[in-house]
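Run log // design_07
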């Protein structure tokens, strides 16, 4: 677990920056708004979640090469300082730029694109926390599990919101502006309520799963001593209320748009309803989902050193001597 070479350090930094394109994180976030707006709603919902999930899994695997090795007492040793501060500033700039730019958008799909950028910034905080290698430390210091749980909660809110947009048409074109959502509660109340549940979950309102995810994520960062980062994250979460409540306000307090019509696609409406219900259900009854996130860490991340039995030579007394063997990280 000593210092890594300069070549490997540069390689890890470049890999992190490259994968930031997949998760729409600073400085590779500029494409997201244009792609979200230009792609069809079904494709947008896909790229808002699947590449982000794959990107964070890849980041966890790469960072496990240079960080989170078990120390002499089983604790997780920190990652090298250059990588730590790179991810620290990426987290701050990603969630801040995502939330601030989301406030000035006129397109709902572009607004949700900047929302997706901000959520990547929140989850980058979990990378700084890392795993806990001590079994009795509890979930408060487990950043890897917090990321996995947060991804599930983010998926429900994102899929539900895009599914609602995909159910609306304005003169044959996909709905996109806030005017298209205006008065949705009066024309199609079921879709309006689904949109309300989804944006409340993305905002982090209790009792939705998004609230539990943010408490889990920020709590793990606070327990790990990242207090400044937690304050920045909470402030950014408050800023995001500006555009999330704007979406909800357009649905319930705007005047109905005469040209907007509902598309008779049962699959999209059913998917939106299931995702919105899941965001509420797992916020109230999601303790087992947290347990699943803790059990779903990547192999070798956060595992305590294993023990092996050494058989003594025949001239010694027949007794088994237990010795600690290096864990999978140290063997690298």
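design_07 sequence
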């Amino acid at each position: 677990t000593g210092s890594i070479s300069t070549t490997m350090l540069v390689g890890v930094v470049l890999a992190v920056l490259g994968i930031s394109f997949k998760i729409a994180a600073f400085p590779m976030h500029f494409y997201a708004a244009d792609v979200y707006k230009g792609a069809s709603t079904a494709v947008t919902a896909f790229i808002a979640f699947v590449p982000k999930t794959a990107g964070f899994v890849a980041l966890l695997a790469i960072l496990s090469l240079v960080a989170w090795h078990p120390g002499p007492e089983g604790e997780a040793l920190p990652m090298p300082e250059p990588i730590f501060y790179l991810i620290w500033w990426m987290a701050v700039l990603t969630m801040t730029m995502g939330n601030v730019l989301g406030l000035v958008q006129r397109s709902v799909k572009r607004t949700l694109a900047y929302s997706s950028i901000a959520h990547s910034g929140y989850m980058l905080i979990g990378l700084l926390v890392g795993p806990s290698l001590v079994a009795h430390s509890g979930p408060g210091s487990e950043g890897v599990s917090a990321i996995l749980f947060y991804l599930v909660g983010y998926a429900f809110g994102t899929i539900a919101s895009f599914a609602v947009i995909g159910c609306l048409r304005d003169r044959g074109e996909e709905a996109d502006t806030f005017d298209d959502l205006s008065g949705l509660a009066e024309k199609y109340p079921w879709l309006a309520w689904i949109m309300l549940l989804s944006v409340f979950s993305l905002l982090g309102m209790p009792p939705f799963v998004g609230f539990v995810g943010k408490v889990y994520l920020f709590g793990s960062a606070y327990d790990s001593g990242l207090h400044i980062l937690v304050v920045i994250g909470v402030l950014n979460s408050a800023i995001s209320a500006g555009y999330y409540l704007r979406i909800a306000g357009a649905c319930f307090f705007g005047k109905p748009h005469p040209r907007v019509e509902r598309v008779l696609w049962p699959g999209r409406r059913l998917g939106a309803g299931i995702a919105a219900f899941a965001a509420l259900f797992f916020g109230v009854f999601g303790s087992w989902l947290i347990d699943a996130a803790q059990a779903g860490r990547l192999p070798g991340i956060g595992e305590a050193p294993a023990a092996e039995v050494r058989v003594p030579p025949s001239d010694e007394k027949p007794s088994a001597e237990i010795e600690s063997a290096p864990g999978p990280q140290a063997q690298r």
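The CA atoms of residues 108 and 178 lie 6 Å apart.
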